[in-house]
Amino acid sequence: QGGAPMLERPAAPANRLCWATAAFLIVCAVAGFGAESLTGGGAIWGLALMLVAGALLLALGGLIGFGLIPPPALRWLRLSIYSGPTRQSVALLATGFVTIGGALFLALLDGRMWGVLGLALLVAALAFMAPLARRIPRDANRRAQDDSVHRQE
């Protein structure tokens, strides 16, 4: 009773570049949080760094989820034969969302009005995206494969 069947292959340079990009963005987000924390709320550039890194992580996760860029991998690329890169994009999407939410919450604690507005927009966007995410059709390649199998039968 193991897990889902996996596809394993050595990571290509594009996978390594994507991994390095994601790691760099996470380091930037942590550096922004550190700057904001150590200065006692006086480093607006720390919040800006967190917001930009979080937005880029969301974009990176979205591009991976839609199959426009390869998923991150350092040595071996391991993909489920059922979900493909979608599973790996979820971690980047969640990290980006938490980073943006954390930066906006810190801005709220610092008394910045845009922190309140940003958090309200983030919650509203999440509320509107949840029903949409349930309706997104399966991957187009998967549908094409299913169609070709049905035509052969």
As a percent range, the share of strand residues is 5-15%
The first-to-last residue Cα distance is 30 Å
Residue-averaged pLDDT: 83
N-to-C SSE string, H for helix and E for strand: EHHEHHH
Structural class, judged by helices and strands?
Answer: mainly alpha
Count every beta strand, where a strand is a DSSP E run of 2 or more residues. 2
Helical run tally:
5
The spatial strand order of the largest sheet comes to 1-2
Specify the helix fraction band: over 70%
> What is the overall silhouette?
globular
Kindly list the characteristics that best describe this protein.
7% strand, 2 strands, 153 residues, two-stranded antiparallel ribbon, mainly alpha, single chain, disordered C terminus
Description:
The chain has 153 residues and is mainly α. Helix 1 packs antiparallel against helix 2 (44-65), helix 1 (13-38) runs parallel beside helix 3 and helix 3 runs antiparallel to helix 4. 71% of the residues lie in helices and 7% in strands. The protein is built from five helices and two strands, in the order βααβααα. Strands 1-2 form a two-stranded antiparallel sheet. It has helices spanning 13-38, 44-65, 86-109, 113-135, 140-152; strands spanning 6-10, 76-80.
